[in-house]
Design a protein that fits this description.
alpha/beta, 7-stranded antiparallel β-sheet, nicotinate phosphoribosyltransferase, 6-stranded parallel β-sheet, globular, TIM Barrel, single chain
């Protein structure tokens, strides 16, 4: 995954930055918040991920000489690249504040996942990268959480690298691990975050040998302690028999990648048990998603783990999140701001999310103004950066993963369900009285 740069943005962020600078608006202090207007279709919750990447980007944000030279040649920017603006870009660093939910937090529509406070120029400039990072990792973490719920305690392996871009693949492996996946096939993700890596040989390994027996034998000789064999290149059940004959007690697992996984896993389990290989695992893969996995589990398929790739990183039902990043407060003028356009209204002011629990289960969320206090409730949005510097250590990936597990366990049964959402069972998210009053005041101010 490449180190993010200041040019990882849309052109209009730079044209606006230049416009702010030339009109003396760049130093105005404002706050933006990142949120989702509505939950993606077929989703009952979101699992927040991507904050670490955002904080790393903000801490290192700057323009290099070669980047500035390039910007001076961009036709849309040429008239704006004055001496003063160029000098400003040379000295530019992010100096703002960041409040956000911790990664691994279960969240819902309209709730602020991140709030960025700083100069108008810097808070505007970072919009594109923040949306890219959070939309990507949160949609994958959310899908992964649903798959984990469907697997009902069985291991799930992340196999999505070849179905997405190289950078996105690494980020997706991390997001899936946060949600509870046991391992990834992506070696870079394993190296970077110490995520367990897993994988077998491909069908080409078997097809490059004179026989399936030779392929299995050669693999086991090289990897005697990690011999999981892909058995469906030709005839799956014959492949299981050959794997047993060749590897026997060195056979750690078999992988089924096609066909009727319920019938094939049942037959394979019987053959393995009859050979005394009760500890040999069966892993299934092949365009799996949470619905297919749930059906296999409900049917009693003797599958110990699932490999999921395409449907994780390029989900057919919800491939994108649709998060937005909107200005909510003008601190220079001490003025809360909001949009009131139909279908795209935003909430004015700085916000906090207060979660109330009953007997250890989340009961409701209240979106209120940041200064509010709600008794017997847990505030979810925390301070991470002040004046461009971290104010707390970043949590380990293990801690984030543990938080996600706890957060999911604390959700009501209806929220953790996988079928089409029932509006009558939707998680209760409401606006506080103070926030509703503020909305009315801002609406009256702006629309009369």
């Amino acid at each position: 995954m490449k180190t993010p740069t200041a040019l990882m943005t849309d052109l209009y962020q730079l044209t606006m930055a230049a416009g702010y600078f030339h009109h003396g608006l760049h130093a105005k202090r404002v706050s933006f918040e990142l949120f989702v207007r509505r939950l993606p279709e077929n989703r009952r919750f979101m699992l927040f991920a991507g904050l670490e990447r955002v904080l790393d980007y903000l801490r290192n944000l700057h323009f290099t000489e070669s980047q500035i030279a390039y910007l001076r040649q961009v036709p849309h920017l040429q008239t704006a690249m004055s001496y003063d603006f160029v000098e400003f870009l040379r000295d530019f660093r992010f100096t703002g504040d960041v409040w956000a939910m911790p990664e691994g937090t279960v969240c819902f529509a309209r709730e602020p996942m991140i709030r960025v406070t700083g100069t108008l120029l810097e808070t505007q400039l970072v919009e594109t990268f923040l949306l890219s990072a959070i939309n990507t990792e949160t949609i994958v973490a959310t899908k992964a959480a649903r798959i984990i719920l469907a697997a009902d305690g069985r291991d799930v392996l992340e196999f999505g690298t070849r179905r997405t871009s190289p950078d996105e693949a690494v980020a997706s492996a991390r997001a899936a691990f946060i949600a509870g996946f046991a391992a990834t096939s992506n070696v870079e993700a394993g190296y970077r975050w110490d995520i367990p890596v897993a994988g077998t040989a491909a069908h080409s390994w078997t097809m490059s040998h004179a026989s399936e027996e030779d392929a299995f034998r050669n693999y086991v000789e090289v990897f005697p302690k990690h011999a999981t064999l892909l058995v469906d290149t030709y005839d799956t059940i014959e492949g299981v028999k050959r794997a047993i004959a060749v590897a026997h007690d060195r056979l750690k697992g078999i992988r089924l990648d096609s066909g009727d996984l319920l019938a094939l896993s049942t037959q394979a389990r019987r053959l393995l048990d009859e050979a005394g290989l009760r500890d040999t695992k069966i892993v299934a893969s092949g365009d799996l998603n949470e619905d297919k996995i749930q059906r296999l589990v409900a049917a009693g398929a003797p599958i110990d783990g699932f490999g999921v790739g395409t449907e994780l990183v390029r989900s057919s039902d919800n491939p994108t999140l649709g998060g937005v990043y909107k200005i909510v407060f003008d601190h220079t003028e001490d003025r809360p701001v909001a949009k009131f356009s139909e279908g795209k209204a935003t909430l004015p002011g700085l916000h906090q999310v207060f979660r109330k629990y009953r007997d250890g289960i989340a009961e409701s969320d209240v979106i209120g103004t940041a200064p509010e206090f709600h008794i017997d409730s847990t505030p979810l949005v925390e301070e991470w950066m002040k004046d461009g510097r971290l104010v707390r250590p970043l949590p380990s990936l293990a801690k984030i993963r543990s938080r996600a597990r706890t957060q999911l366990a604390e959700m009501p049964v209806a929220v953790r369900g996988l079928g089409p959402p029932n509006p009558a069972e939707a998680y209760d998210v409401r606006l506080s009285h103070g926030l509703q009053t503020l909305i009315d005041e801002v609406r009256k101010r702006e629309m009369t």
